[in-house]
Amino acid sequence: MNRLLLLFLLVSSSAFAAESGSLPLKCQLLDTSDHFWFYNEQIVYKSDQFAVFQNFKGRVVTQIDLKTNELIRTTYIGDPFDPEYQILLGKCDDALHVLDMWAMNQLPLDN
Questions:
Q1: What is the pLDDT of residue 16?
Q2: What CA–CA distance (Å, rounded) separates 94 from 68?
Q3: In the list 39, 77, 79, 98, which could disulfide-bond 25, CB 3.0-4.6 Å?
Q4: Between the CA of residue 31 and those of 1, 13, 34, 59, 91, what are the distances in Å?
Q5: What angle do CA 10, 64, 83 make, to 5 degrees?
């Protein structure tokens, strides 16, 4: 019985994610096995070549090159700590395709 409930929850939550446009853009760092997932709500800028995401009230900014899928993530660690920047490099999976899917999910459906 628990397995059936778990299956139902997985299917219903996946359907909700697809409907809400919240399928993640998945990226992995080059030097470690760390992964980052980005969502439509985090994007602050998009052009033909770049997308910029913001997290943690602007302390973390990620720029993704939509032509090469390259990622650069800059983190500012400040108050109450000594100011310091962390810069990470990575690659994303089909970034432009994911952003196009997000844009399609924003279009109204004809009834």
A1: 44
A2: 9
A3: 98
A4: 43, 32, 9, 22, 11
A5: 100
Q: What is the pTM of this model?
A: 0.72
β-bridge pairing 60-65 and 43-46 = unpaired
Hey, which bits of the chain come out as E strands? 25-29, 35-38, 43-46, 50-55, 60-65, 70-77, 84-92
Establish whether the linkage from the previous residue to 24 is cis, with ω within 30° of 0: no
Contact 65, 28 (CB under 8 A): no
- Residue from 101, 98, 30, 36 nearest 62 by CA: 36
What integer best gives the mean pLDDT of the chain? 84
Per DSSP, the residues of 23-45 read PPEEEEESSSS-EEEE-GGGEEE
> What's the rounded Cα separation, in Å, for the pair 44 and 52?
6
Q: For the chain, give the longest Cα–Cα distance.
A: 56
